[in-house]
Amino acid sequence: MVRPPKLVDLCSEALVHEVNGSLDDYLLYGISQLPKELFDLVIMELNPLALSKMEDNWPDDLTCASEQYINPLIRKRKRYGTLELAWYNIFNARWKAEKLEDDWQQVYWEKHLQECVDAVAESTFLPSGDGLFGEVDIPDNILEHIGCKDRMLASASDYVKLSYHCSQFGTHLRSLNLQNSLLMAKTSVGGLCKLLELNKETLKSVSFILCNLALSSIKEICESLQMKDLQQHGVEHFTIKRSRLSLVDETHVPSGFASFITSGKCLLSLTLSDSQIGRASAIETWNYLLEAPSISSLDLSENDISGLFTRLKWRSSSSTHGIGGSKLSLRVLNLRGCNLKKYDICCLKHNMLHMPNLEDLDLSDNWIGNCIRSLILYFNEIANRDTPFSELKLENCGIRCHKAVDLLDALSNMKKPLNLLSLKRNRLGSEFGPALGKFLCSGIRKVDVESISLGSIGFVLAGNEITKGMELEHINIRNNQGAVEAIEFIDTLFSNARRGVVNFEL
Questions:
Q1: 448 half-sphere exposure, CB direction, 13 A CA radius
Q2: What are the tens digits of pLDDT across the range 290-303?
Q3: Could you tell me whether strands 332-334 and 360-362 are parallel, antiparallel, or unpaired per DSSP bridges?
Q4: Taking CA 99 as the corner, what is the angle to CA 95 and CA 105, rounded to the nearest 5 degrees?
Q5: Are 456 and 481 in contact, with CB atoms under 8 Å apart?
Q6: What gap in Å lies between CA 280 and CA 286, rounded to an integer?
Q7: pLDDT (tens digit per residue) in 406-425
Q8: Nearest-angstrom CA–CA distance, 217 and 208
Q9: Residue 417 and residue 471: Cα distance in Å, rounded?
Q10: Residue 349 phi/psi, 5° resolution?
Q11: What are phi and psi of 446, to 5 degrees?
């Protein structure tokens, strides 16, 4: 016999149906006054729009039974108990949660807004008019996720527009990625700047990918992020990637961008990858970095900036280390594919000495050749510093075997061993085997030697140098024509690894 439904379940179902359909303020207020058992049932069934609106209108003088499991004084910062679980379930139903978060409502609306912006960017038609950015319609499938299914509802047209989503949920934004056609028109940039300015106090990360940015656009965007009263901004990560900066005068960066760099008291990383900035603009950007001590990561990869390191000028002053007075706080420097010439690499040593905290360097896809001796001298000079040098990537750099051997000797003498070294796609040959085997026992954890022409003999020679107690955790030895000897080499690594396991790519 079918059991009749409980009265509390029927009441809950009817209330949820009404609230989700009408978003009535009086009903939403009434939910806060429900007994805990009914409150729990209703909360778990509300759609995102209803749940968010209920929290935004939560009474400050809350005295009902639900007060014991949510404190209205902290509801803007963290949510506990039933409400936090409800937001977790909503997020997980739409995207599947991959990690724990402190505030699931914030994470939900941030990801939702990113989906809205991405959908607009993919649109093949953008309406004309001053409100271009905000007047774009959000696709039905995204609207349905938040509970806006019936467009005949009162004021439903508001929910259709991107402007509504930005104004209602923009305060939850911490990271925003903009791309392609979204910034093709001037009115699009104007609408974007309004969004950035509205949320500049909460935004921590802003990225532009596949965009054509005019001089005026860069200036407007950067100025919209500035907190005018404080003459600074709160952005921590700023990225322009695979984009074209349409600079009218390539010898100068836009004034708004320059002030954005120097006023970024919290700016930790700056990425201008594959953005066609050119050498002159790179030099000027570098000079501005001297006034931005907070930046710890700089990515100029995939830009033609040959000659950059021969033109940099450092302010001089006395120093106990014999280095100039001006220094950068950089920890990560990515110069992959920058068309650096031999004279750039030779000058790089001097410039890196002005970066006492540098620990991650990528020079891949630059023809270094025999000028690697400058890097060897650099590592010899910093061998005893307390700050460890963690990662070095020299992929496809035209390095020859005897110079690579000298490099490994220098790295092996570091006070603290590297975490990662990549020499992939350098034709080092089988004679590199002994040096490689010794280096694997120096304390390094990750090594990439794919496509270095090691061959069967090279694997045998490397294996002969392996000793007990290796710290190695991962190695890539693909495309080295090692045959059976490569398998035997892997077996040797397993037998001598401190943890007994080495992840490998073969």
A1: 15
A2: 877 789 999 999 99
A3: parallel
A4: 60
A5: yes
A6: 10
A7: 999 999 999 999 999 999 99
A8: 12
A9: 10
A10: -55, -50
A11: -135, 130
| pLDDT tens per residue across span 366-388 | 999 888 999 999 999 999 998 88
CA 361 to CA 407: how far, in whole Å? 14
When pLDDT is averaged across residues 302-308 and rounded to a whole number, the result is 90
Q: How many whole angstroms separate alpha carbon 208 and alpha carbon 294?
A: 21
Q: How far is CA 254 from CA 9, 217, 218, 257, 378, in A?
A: 62, 10, 7, 5, 34
Report how far apart, in Å, the C-alpha atoms of 201 and of each of 234, 242, 296 are: 6, 27, 21
State the pLDDT at residue 79: 38
Output the six-digit token pair for 371: 């000028």
Lookup result for tokens 């978060």: 101
Question: Is residue 431 exposed (0-12), middle (13-18) or buried (19+ Cβ within 10 Å)?
Answer: middle
> Is residue 121 within 8 Å of 179, Cβ to Cβ?
yes
Q: Which residue has the tokens 């007060």?
A: 67
Q: 41: phi > 0 → left, psi -120 to 50 → alpha, else beta; which?
A: alpha
Count other C-beta atoms under 10 Å from residue 70's C-beta.
21
Res 316: pLDDT: 56
Rg (alpha carbons) of the chain, rounded to whole number: 29
Closest by Cα among 304, 302, 306, 244 to 274: 302
Interacting residues of 163 by C-beta distance below 8 A, sequence separation 6+: 131, 133, 134, 135, 191
- Each as own residue / partner, the long-range contacts of residues 251-256 (CB below 8 Å, 24 or more positions apart, any chain) are 251/280, 251/281, 251/284, 252/280, 252/281, 252/284, 253/277, 253/281, 253/284, 253/285, 253/288, 254/215, 254/218, 254/219, 254/222, 255/219, 256/218, 256/219, 256/220, 256/221, 256/222, 256/223
CA distances in angstroms from 219 to 172, 235, 246, listed in the order given: 25, 16, 12
Task: Indicate the pairing of strand 391-393 with strand 420-422.
Answer: parallel
Q: Which residue has the tokens 């025999």?
A: 370
Residue 307's SS3 state is coil
